[in-house]
Specification:
CATH topology of the largest domain in chain A: Aspartate Aminotransferase, domain 2
Number of strands of chain A: 17
Radius of gyration of chain A: 24 Å
Strand content of chain A: 5-15%
Oligomer: homodimer
Amino acid sequence: MIQPITKPASVPLYVELADSLQQLVEQGTLRPGHRVPSVRRMALQRDVSISTVLQAYTVLENRGFLEARPQSGYYVRPRLSLEAPEPRMARPMAKPSYVGVSDLTAEILAHTMDPAFLSLGAACPAPSLFPAKKLARVMGSVVRNDPSLIGRYAMNWGYEPLTREIARRYLQAGATVAHDELAITIGCTEAINLALRAVTKPGDTIAVETPAYYGILQIIQSLNLRVLEIPTDSREGLCVDAFREALQQNDIKALFVVPSFQNPLGSCMPDAAKEKLYELLVEFDIPAIEDDVYGDLHFSERRPKPLKSWDRDGRVLLCSSFCKTLAPSLRVGWIAPGKYMERVRRLKFTNTLGTPVVLQKTISDFLRDGGYDHHLRSIRRAYQNQLHLFSQAVLRHFPAGTRLSRPQGGFVLWLELPNGVDTYKLYQDALNKRITIAPGALFTAKDRYKNCLRISAGIPWTDTIAQALETIGNLAKQQLGQ
Amino acid sequence: MIQPITKPASVPLYVELADSLQQLVEQGTLRPGHRVPSVRRMALQRDVSISTVLQAYTVLENRGFLEARPQSGYYVRPRLSLEAPEPRMARPMAKPSYVGVSDLTAEILAHTMDPAFLSLGAACPAPSLFPAKKLARVMGSVVRNDPSLIGRYAMNWGYEPLTREIARRYLQAGATVAHDELAITIGCTEAINLALRAVTKPGDTIAVETPAYYGILQIIQSLNLRVLEIPTDSREGLCVDAFREALQQNDIKALFVVPSFQNPLGSCMPDAAKEKLYELLVEFDIPAIEDDVYGDLHFSERRPKPLKSWDRDGRVLLCSSFCKTLAPSLRVGWIAPGKYMERVRRLKFTNTLGTPVVLQKTISDFLRDGGYDHHLRSIRRAYQNQLHLFSQAVLRHFPAGTRLSRPQGGFVLWLELPNGVDTYKLYQDALNKRITIAPGALFTAKDRYKNCLRISAGIPWTDTIAQALETIGNLAKQQLGQ
């Protein structure tokens, strides 16, 4: 049954062993509650040292697959059912409102950058997940081979080999975007800014999913726009029928939507819903700003099609970046603004002039030869595994009745705790223990989600995280008097 | 009289020779109209080959110091008097207006990037003026030594060693700015955007110098602000008395000002005027956004003090960048926003999140060990020399009565042509000859400067430039029927 393992040079032997055993658990060969072979026996079976087996078992403990029972040995940990209830959809909002975002975001982000805190509050993946060394080598040769890239004025809409590569990838994903219909931006953040400024004027109303990523709420606030929050399902995304009602009752100038793996819900709109949404945009003649920054982080085989795939008349402004998939710190994003291209270009020019070509060429060269698809597969696997382990820990340690999202992509979890839990207080209590979380109140311009929470599973699983989630769960139980 | 020349390894012999002869012209040893020694005699005198002397004389022809007279030899070219009249100050503007910037700017900038055009229209220095190779080496070691810079999320207000270095340099220039009072931005363009957004709301009126850099007019337009243009002297900058009158008659929310080497005039406000301006800001209790991007490009010994030097209460938002002095393409700028720091930080976060640390550290390491001061001295010398040659050519070839600015820093020239010249037509005619210039109409939100022109002297002098300026001059004369 158990096969001898081979050893590629790059992976330590104990990790190899752990991976192979984990596979047996996942395939059901080793079943929950079963005792695994003793350390000594496993060492004999696999022809490795005892310390290698001990290390492998420790790795599997950390990953949540094994548990050590004193005086008895290692057992396959019971897999907690993920059949726990999912978060409920919010009610529609009666009228648009301006956003009053608290200073909390800045505080959370400051702590995120502070190595003294364990940051589960910001949707920033761990640096270790990215091929930084390879990118550094690519960037080194980019500047060595053409130093004039540094002297030439950075006034451009996009480095063509990069825009061509992005266009090629969208074609594969089902969306036709020509390379010269793209402008390269400083991250997805600038792309969203330009898009919003291209389609609105101050005072206008933007429809957004609810809960919504707090960053978009802050951008909307900074541009003096109003929001109308549209009920959104934690699995299937924006509720198109609710959006229709909102359109009938309000003067909505544009929709901001994250159709694939929405932050914070992790929801993904089915193709049919995306199509229906697009037709609704046409019917009411409004544009949509599509944030596709998580689209490449799908766990199923197929990458979800962007809403842009259905766009016949250039009303979808597609925004994205490499910040969640490849190189967070290079801030290379893009926008395919459809018929708003001229306005967006002019705004890009007045906002930041251009995006440094050295960054664009680094990404472009990596996409060409760096094994980007291989990297994407590995980062998707990592996020999926991390989300699973985080979810299990939440179900184990959080108060009974906690509802939990089931993201099929991305790396954030949305939790709805029982009524009576105040997640702002929970945030403060966790901060005292040097852990950050993102309380639900951040994700709305209204007075809701006070018992909700977003947790980022962007950091590889460790004992510290396990303990942190147990701590947060206990703090929540204390609030409920449990 | 004429000394034998030594030869450092790095400079070709004929350039050495040309430099040494140019020095003799500049010192007055060789005087205008005098014949220089024949090629053969010079070769004997300096113990170099005849072809070296021929090359050196050609260089000096290109630089405008010598002229060849057929059958006669080389003569020191008459130095045209720079006592030609200077451009006149504009009249005050009756009331604020929204900006209606034409598409011309985008067109000019597109041609600037097109190597088929000789670009005298955009204020972009030639890449050859920057230490690109050295910066490339620095950037290569930055990423090699710390690849994690690429993986870490770029969420920051500034890389501390860089902000400390910028603060140190301001201290030398006479302005006290603490390193943590700075935020690093995507070029000066983003800094100005953040500053304007921090101190205004849509519909507000901003006072600007006139003529004004068209980029600032476009930013103002993109933010739905109004401008009031304040008369500005081509030598002494913003007319403070005219600004006082404007403040008395209008509800001005802020001033945007380039006190040192204003673009396009090249004017520099004397210290006394800066101080008087600051006191006026206090009296009327409004903030000023100071664009100091040309401040380091002074031709006299002393760097002009920023307006910020007089700032007692944080009402001056100082904006600048390394794009005109060191690395145009890296887009590293900054803002010292005084008492508006919190607002500016929040806007930076929503606008572009952060500035890539790899770019910041590259600049910072170069400032630490790369000989930045040495580079600055050489680029200042280059700009001064180029401006001189451009000015001479303008006086030689443009219609009589052309007025010309006398910048004491920076690298742009402002020309006021005789009435009857339409510089928009001149721009179009020049474009047909594959030369770009910036017509005066770009530099105002009003209907003026139709006979004015900005020429950038950011490109080292060549025959092509000499011919281009002659061409433009002839086109202008044609318009006047000359």
